[in-house]
Automatic annotation (TrEMBL):
Signal peptide region: none
Coiled coil stretches, renumbered: none
Domain DUF2062 residues, every copy: 14-149
UniProt source species: Geoalkalibacter halelectricus
Database matches in InterPro entries: DUF2062
Name this polypeptide is given: DUF2062 domain-containing protein
Pfam families for the chain: DUF2062 (PF09835)
Record has Membrane as a keyword: yes
Alphabetically ordered keywords of this record: Membrane, Transmembrane, Transmembrane helix
Keyword Magnesium: no
Segments crossing the lipid bilayer: 37-61, 68-89, 120-144
Amino acid sequence: MILGFMWQRLALIRQFKLNFIRLLRARGSADEIAKGLALGVFIGMTPTFGVQMIIAIFVAVLLRENKIAAAAGVWVTNPATAPFIYALGYETGRLLLGMERVVMVREFNYEAIKQFGWDLFLPLTVGGIVLGFLCAAITYALTVRAIPVLKTWRIPRWPRPRRR
């Protein structure tokens, strides 16, 4: 019996469930929530790791979109998915710009490091923006249809552990 509910005690799973419920109960229409989530996903695909949530909330305030959904959308980029997202973004940008793959600098002077950074940052940004638009469009299309269905779900409370 104890093992059956052990997975429910994990803080990460509990936090995900609480944030999912908060997103579902967010005020606004399905369109507003979907726009906020798509905005967050777009920002999550750009190479702004570490400040994505701040940027998403700031842009959501400027555009008057759903701030909670925008903050939730940046979770697409997390420590487990970031290497794959940024690698795909870099390769996409590199191919679109017709650039060669970046090679590690052999001499550490200002000019070499500046060129290395530019050769890495430019394709990563261009690829991130292209993938961001694509993923944001897909997120919006799926979310605007899913929110009305998900809002009707009754999510049961998790049983609390018994105190001895």
